[in-house]
């Protein structure tokens, strides 16, 4: 158990030393980079991030991305087709409803005219 703790303590001490060094550099001048040599800034670190270490992984990721893009475009195409079908159906329904409204308005005008005529005839009969 002590062997596990010892390396952790060493790592912690090293981190603290590095933090103190960074703080010391930043306090000594306005820019923390000014005291660093150009070699320290220009050379990539040994632990730099390489997401695809092998060309095979890179090609596999590219192929995976192409498939995902194809699936996405196909999904969007289907959604657009469904929306267009829905619009067509709603347009037909709207047209039918407008025809019904026109028919009902025509019937209302007819019955109002009929009631007016009947009212006059009833008034003549009463008089």
From TrEMBL:
<protein>
    <submittedName>
        <fullName>BZIP domain-containing protein</fullName>
    </submittedName>
</protein>
<dbReference type="GO" id="GO:0000977">
    <property type="term" value="F:RNA polymerase II transcription regulatory region sequence-specific DNA binding"/>
</dbReference>
<keyword id="KW-0238">DNA-binding</keyword>
<dbReference type="InterPro" id="IPR004827">
    <property type="entry name" value="bZIP"/>
</dbReference>
<dbReference type="Pfam" id="PF00170">
    <property type="entry name" value="bZIP_1"/>
</dbReference>
<dbReference type="GO" id="GO:0005634">
    <property type="term" value="C:nucleus"/>
</dbReference>
<feature type="region of interest" description="Disordered">
    <location>
        <begin position="21"/>
        <end position="82"/>
    </location>
</feature>
<comment type="similarity">
    <text>Belongs to the bZIP family.</text>
</comment>
<dbReference type="InterPro" id="IPR046347">
    <property type="entry name" value="bZIP_sf"/>
</dbReference>
<feature type="compositionally biased region" description="Basic and acidic residues">
    <location>
        <begin position="38"/>
        <end position="58"/>
    </location>
</feature>
<dbReference type="GO" id="GO:0001228">
    <property type="term" value="F:DNA-binding transcription activator activity, RNA polymerase II-specific"/>
</dbReference>
<keyword id="KW-0805">Transcription regulation</keyword>
<feature type="compositionally biased region" description="Low complexity">
    <location>
        <begin position="27"/>
        <end position="37"/>
    </location>
</feature>
<feature type="domain" description="BZIP">
    <location>
        <begin position="55"/>
        <end position="118"/>
    </location>
</feature>
<keyword id="KW-0804">Transcription</keyword>
<keyword id="KW-0539">Nucleus</keyword>
């Amino acid at each position: 158990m002590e062997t596990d703790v010892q390396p952790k303590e060493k790592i912690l001490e090293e981190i603290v030393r590095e933090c103190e060094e960074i703080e010391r550099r930043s306090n000594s001048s306005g820019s923390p980079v000014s005291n660093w040599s150009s070699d320290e800034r220009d050379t990539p670190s040994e632990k730099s991030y390489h997401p695809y270490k092998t060309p095979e992984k890179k090609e596999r990721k590219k192929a995976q991305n192409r498939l995902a893009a194809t699936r996405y475009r196909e999904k969007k195409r289907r959604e657009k087709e469904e929306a267009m079908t829905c619009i067509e159906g709603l347009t037909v329904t709207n047209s039918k409803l407008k025809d019904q409204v026109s028919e009902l308005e025509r019937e209302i005008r007819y019955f109002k005219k009929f009631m007016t005529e009947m009212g006059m005839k009833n008034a003549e009969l009463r008089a």
